[in-house]
Specification:
Helix content is 33%, strand content 20%. The model has no long low-confidence stretch (mean pLDDT 87). The structure holds one RNA strand.
RNA sequence: GCAGAAAUGGUGGAAUUGGUAGACACGUUGGACUUAAAAUCCAAUGGGUAGUAAUGCCCGUGCGGGUUCAAGUCCCGCUUUCUGUACCA
């Protein structure tokens, strides 16, 4: 009988589905284990070979845990709101819901054929109204909450109102807007309802605020920093302007300290925790207020070096700082405006990365040093970002390299405040390495004492205080898009009102086109039925808006991270019981949190931070009992694609083969990798008749070398736009899912990025054929009840140990080698013993479940292998009596010698020294030293 | 610029605690089987060098130093690549 993998795989996939083999139960005698993948966005390109890498790893772990006796929850779903479906809708008019539905069907088929042990009964889709109902509900909870710094927790907004009516806001220690006006209890009572709403909005955990965005009028959308190149949109090259917009924001900054501290309690890689720490960016220092000379205005700065306050002799504002226009002098106005215009064209990212170009302009205005009252020149420079801190920096050129370079470039003097330090070449940035001078009352003090004293002095004159600053900014939560969760919000006189829980979900309205409106409103501005009737409690036609009972609804939608910030809770509830809570208390208490989470590192600071924020919030409000959602997290490395290029000679329609481009002016153009064979030769006919790009190449001339057109190759991120996507379907059809699973693991360490290359897949496929032949002969099963030999048991137990260790350490690539070695050994031993070959299948089953199930049943088992207990390791089978010692001379191995492990150091040395090969090596010399490490090595020095 | 990760044969990678570098595969070469091909099986395969051969010697884990009886592994200094990025004031 032959190994017919297609039949076997289809058979067992059907079996698992029919028998609900992997459906998790919310009650069990077994301990629970929750294994989760980052759910995919169902793109039109379908699943590529990079997606399954993490899914295979988590599936191996989930199956392993089942063998180890755990009640495993291993669900999957779709992050199904997103831009590509919307973009497609804009181009074709097709509703994104339809595109999404089609794409999900493709993903499901592709995932099913790989044989994952997902519990599909618990599937979630973020774009499903029954799901986003609860996303909207969480938003309302955030709106109805404020963060009390005294308790360190979010509380219901009503507790804040109680405080306001009893004692005003001066005693409240809350996370809130910066520009809060103090008021008394009496004043609170005298406020109108609208005034009260305005005040409360300054405290709510989600709030409306003016935020600066990159606005592209031609596209009618807001762009991310990396979508802007040289001040124009990457797509289409349209101008981009900075524009202020009123948007929903989330007060994630309230949780900065808890997000930071929580990292110490979870089992994530140090590198990932480090990037979250950097993102949160806690720094301890002081805020300092500078008065502007000749104006009433003040400039606040934050500094980590209050000790260097006497080294300040200028300051720099971000070009977009609101004071710039106000304080600039007439003589400098033209220069300043020209500079601001130039800066406006650079993205934040560009400004950050470019440190070589020093640029800036003097405003002509001066601030006043808080202690010396000396004038401090106010400059603007684009290395200061408006969105970070206060958008202003006090410059200490002798103590900060960037300030030093800036001063040097513009001929500003650099006063020295460090005792015994030469600052003629470079700034001195080391804290506490010397004492201060030229610093008045700080003279002779080191960093720590000086900082303390400086802060005390600033506080005494009311021009500063000690402060802890976080880099983490509040997160903008509005998107000017169609395909996202609508806000459950309507506006009365411009004040946002929440729609009550019992009326949710507020479903996305129908629109004619998915573009922004001509007046620049988001796509929902095109909806005709998009108003809220407060009497009928339903969405009604816009014509009925009367602003007394019927009001306009919010036009923005929520960002992609809304739905993905809590989906792991939704899986906890059995689908049939998903009633009137986002998950029942029982389900939440049973599954608690995700035990193992696997996904890409690109989500390190987005999704993983927002999820942690929402979980902490939900805990504060009593909806969940956990502080951290993901106990252990592994990042799988990116699978890179090998892109292919053709080279068009500049200004022609002629393409040169890769070997001919030297010295020519050519532009490389991506071509689809399916038209390129393993020898980098291009299928020109295929390219010319391609449905998508054939037209572009129809009349092109291809210049060949040695009769073929050779493409250039480059390893890049696998992406639809680079035309290097490789699809798993063909591999499943040609080699089977088990081969794909083994091969993806065999490629290398899970966490390392690696280019995809199918060249080696025949190796793992050949292994599976060998394995099959070990169990199944020409006519019948080979396996017998024969007693296992010593060697059989040795191979088995060696393999048990190695595979178990590998899985626990997420080192799946080395397990595959171990299986190959074991099968090679069993073959050499002519092993037929069921006592050895049966448990071996359990070891293999997490990796190659279909063939393991088939052989398991061929051996006469009637139940699925998936719950079979993992074999117990017995070390007694591995005990050795002798060791082949490497004999080294001066650290170089010269020959080996087999010796009993019972021998002591002295005996070993005696035998080795007496050996004829030793004497050959020494050639009469007397060794200075002989190192003997029993069981390891012998090294003779001399 | 900053942060994190990485660099080992023609290729993917292994060496888990400092102890025989290159496991396991791919590829390549030679052989068996076959009318032939595919499939399968066997053998060789880091580079150089001496020898008919058995075998031996030299070099070798990005580069330069160091610690050690012994370094891919530890320390110091660099280079390159990948990923992320908000000049961390």
């Amino acid at each position: 009988m032959q190994y017919h993998f297609n039949d076997i795989e289809a058979k067992w996939q059907k079996y698992w589905a029919e028998h609900k083999t992997f459906q998790a139960k919310n009650q069990s005698e077994k301990p629970k284990y929750y294994v989760l993948d980052m759910f995919p966005y169902p793109s039109g390109a379908g699943l590529h070979v990079g997606h399954p890498l993490g899914y295979i790893a988590s599936d191996i772990y989930a199956r392993y845990k089942r063998h180890k006796g755990f009640n495993v929850l291993h669900p999957q779903g779709y992050d199904s709101f997103g831009l590509p479906a919307e973009q497609y809708a804009i181009q074709t008019g097709q509703h994104p819901a339809i595109t999404t539905e089609t794409n999900i069907a493709t993903y499901r088929r592709q995932l099913d054929q790989i044989g994952f042990s997902f519990d599909w009964s618990r599937e979630v889709r973020t774009s499903n109204p029954e799901y986003y109902k609860w996303t909207q509900w969480i938003f309302v909870q955030l709106f109805n909450s404020w963060f009390n710094n005294d308790s360190g927790k979010a509380e219901d907004i009503s507790t804040l109102e109680t405080i306001f009516s009893a004692e005003g806001n001066t005693t409240v220690n809350a996370v809130c807007d910066d520009n809060i006006e103090p008021f008394t209890a009496e004043a609170w009572h005298s406020f109108s309802s609208e005034q009260k709403q305005d005040v409360l909005l300054q405290y709510r955990l989600t709030y409306l605020a003016e935020t600066e965005v990159n606005w592209c009028p031609a596209l009618g959308t807001v762009l991310a920093n990396d979508e802007i190149v040289n001040g124009v949109s990457e797509r289409g090259g349209h101008t981009v302007v900075r524009k202020k917009m009123t948007q929903w924001s989330m007060r994630i900054s309230a949780y900065a300290e808890r997000l930071l501290q929580g990292l110490n309690t979870i089992d994530w890689t140090d590198s990932l925790k480090e990037s979250q720490r950097n993102w949160i960016g806690k720094s301890v220092g002081a805020s300092v207020t500078f008065n502007v000379k000749g104006h009433d205005d003040k400039i606040d700065v934050f500094t980590t070096r209050p000790d260097t306050i006497f080294g300040v002799n200028f300051m720099t504002l971000a070009p977009e700082h609101e004071l710039v226009a106000k304080i600039v002098t007439a003589e400098q106005k033209a220069d300043v405006e020209a500079y601001i215009e130039k800066t406006a064209k650079r993205s934040e990212r560009e400004r950050m990365a470019d440190v070589k170009t020093i640029s800036g302009v003097f405003t002509g205005a001066y601030a006043e040093h808080p202690f010396t009252k000396e004038p401090v020149a106010i400059w603007i420079g684009d290395y200061v970002l408006a969105s970070y801190g206060t958008g202003a920096v006090m410059a200490v050129p002798c103590g900060d390299q960037r300030d030093y370079d800036f001063a040097n470039h513009f001929g500003i003097t650099i006063p020295n405040i460090f005792e015994g330090v030469d600052i003629s070449e470079t700034a001195f940035g080391e804290k506490g390495k010397t004492k201060l001078m030229n610093s008045d009352f700080l003279n002779g003090l080191a960093y720590k004492e000086a900082s303390k004293k400086a802060i005390e002095a600033l506080e005494a004159i009311g021009q500063g205080e000690g402060k802890t600053n976080y880099r983490l900014r509040d997160a903008v939560f509005s998107r000017q898009r169609y395909w996202g969760e609508p806000f459950p919000v309507y506006y009365v006189n411009g004040k946002p009102q929440m729609i009550a829980m019992e009326h949710l979900p507020i479903r996305l309205p129908e629109v004619e086109k998915y573009l922004p409106t001509e007046t620049g409103e988001p796509p929902l501005g095109r909806a005709d039925v998009w108003a809220w009737d407060t009497e009928l409690n339903t969405v009604v036609s816009n014509e009925k808006i009367n602003n007394t009972t019927v009001f306009p609804l919010e036009l923005n939608t929520m960002p992609g991270w809304a739905g993905s910030s809590w989906y792991f809770f939704r899986y906890m509830e059995e689908a049939s019981k998903r009633g009137d809570a986002f998950a029942s208390e029982d389900a939440l208490n049973y599954w608690e949190s995700v035990d193992l989470y696997i996904g890409g590192s690109e989500h390190a600071t987005g999704h993983l931070l927002y999820s942690r924020f929402w979980v902490k919030f939900l805990k504060d409000r009593g909806f969940v009992n956990i502080e951290e959602p993901f106990k252990k997290l592994i990042n799988q490395g990116m699978i890179l694609g090998t892109s292919a290029f053709v080279y068009r000679e500049e200004g022609t329609n002629t393409y040169l083969s890769h070997g001919l481009i030297e010295g020519k002016s050519v532009s490389p153009i991506h071509v689809k990798v399916q038209y390129v064979n393993a020898s980098d030769e291009l299928d020109i006919e295929g390219l010319k008749t391609d449905g998508e790009f054939g037209e572009d190449f129809k009349d092109a001339e291809f210049i060949l070398e040695d009769g073929v057109y050779k493409v250039g190759r480059e390893v890049e991120k696998m992406s639809k736009s680079k035309y290097n996507v490789v699809n798993p379907d063909q591999i499943c059809a040609e080699y089977g899912a088990d081969s794909l699973r083994l091969y993806e693991m065999f490629l290398g360490p899970l966490e390392q990025a690696k280019p995809w290359n199918t060249a080696g897949i025949t190796g793992v496929h050949g292994f599976l054929k060998k394995l099959w032949k070990l169990y199944i002969g020409e006519e019948s099963v080979n396996v017998t009840d024969a007693e296992p030999t010593k060697d059989n048991l040795k191979t088995l137990h060696k393999t048990i140990k190695k595979v178990e260790d590998d899985i626990e350490n997420f080192s799946f690539n080395t397990s595959v080698s171990t299986f190959m070695i074991a099968v090679n050994e069993f073959n050499a031993q002519k092993c037929v013993s069921k006592a050895v070959l049966e448990p071996f299948l359990v070891l293999l089953s997490p990796y190659a479940p279909h063939i393991a199930e088939e052989l398991w049943s061929q051996l006469g088992n009637l139940e699925s292998i998936s719950e079979a207990p993992f074999p117990e390791f017995d070390g007694s089978h591995l005990v050795e009596s002798s060791k082949v010692y490497p004999i080294s001379f001066n650290g170089k191995m010269r020959f080996t010698l087999e010796l009993s492990l019972d021998l002591g150091k002295g005996e070993i040395e005696k035998i080795v020294m007496a050996h004829e090969k030793t004497q050959d090596q020494l050639q009469g010399r007397t060794p200075k030293k002989v190192i003997v490490v029993p069981g390891k090595i012998i090294n003779i020095v001399g």
